[in-house]
Amino acid sequence: MAYSETTVIAGGLAHIPIVIGLFRVIENFVLQRTDSQGSSGSSTIPTSEPEKTQVSTPTKLPSKKQAHQNVPVNTYKPKAPFEGKVLENYSLLKEDAIGRVNHITFDLSGGNPQLKYVEGQSIGIIPAGEDAKGKPHKIRLYSIASTRHGDNMQGKTVSLCVRQLQYEKDGQTIDGVCSTYLCDIAKGEKVKITGPVGKEMLLPDDEEANVIMLATGTGIAPMRAYLRKMFEPQERKKNNWNFRGKAWLFMGAPKTANLLYDEDFENYKSKFPENFRYTKAISREQQNAKGGRMYIQDRVLENSEELFALIENPKTYIYLCGLKGMEPGIDEAMTTAAAAKGINWSELRLKLKKAKRWNVETY
Fold this sequence. Notes:
Number of domains: 2
Largest sheet: 6 strands, antiparallel
Oligomer: single chain
Strand order of the largest sheet: 4-3-8-1-2-5
CATH topology of the largest domain: Rossmann fold
Order of helices and strands: HEEEEEEEHEEHHEHEHHEHHE
Shape: globular
Distance between the termini: 9 Å
Strand content: 15-25%
Helix content: 10-25%
CATH architecture of the largest domain: 3-Layer(aba) Sandwich
Number of helices: 9
């Protein structure tokens, strides 16, 4: 997920419209990332809410502060970035998809010190070249899509999921600087990388935790890392961490061809049916109960009873990642669902946030 440009992405963002209602309230409790590089994208930062009387608060679970004391931060800074070589760069979309989204992997070997990271963090990318004023381009932050071991399990690579930003200005289509640079970059080229940064989206250490994930588009990046850690056999063995809780992914896309890493998630669902649930909201192909387009908030309402049953468990953590426009819609859906149970969602969300159980990263 990119955090570099704040304008509306043409084409691929078509599935976000209604989601605009879901997270407005959430903005108030969204933690701002704290790192020397500043915000999350070209502007600010890739996916959660509070609790009410009926929802219990975590008791003696280790807090994130305790569980993640040794998380690496800012190993490489803007003035002295690490140069990582591109190992692969390929499209994640199928025929007939909207927009352009690539999976890009960088080699981190040779660093002194080694650039290490954990699931849920981000790295900064400094595009090659200069801006219109002749100055070096500014850093853009992207959510990491791989686990700390990398896609090849060797511990010396990092992968990103990047959508090319495009928007209209004065009748012309403008391509995002960093996203286009990354989508076009060739294997073997070197890229300036900073970071890692971020502690908002880290997973709990508890193997029996429940994890609810809400993602749109490239907001799937950190979710992919979580799910690989949970369900990839090599990951489970290498980490000596065997996830036994419930993981539930809500994924939003405009078309089936735009579902990212869909085959992997379907594989996890088939192999771990008791632990993983995968719910899709495909706006241009599915209809909600009112006959309109299907968005994530509609799926939240459809499954509100089960969702709130999970939220009542103090071991349940919620992660939201994607475009900022998705927040208001999800918040509205949660408000409606909570009200049906006599719960004040605003109060509940704040309690969840305070308990580190509601985690949001939008851009």
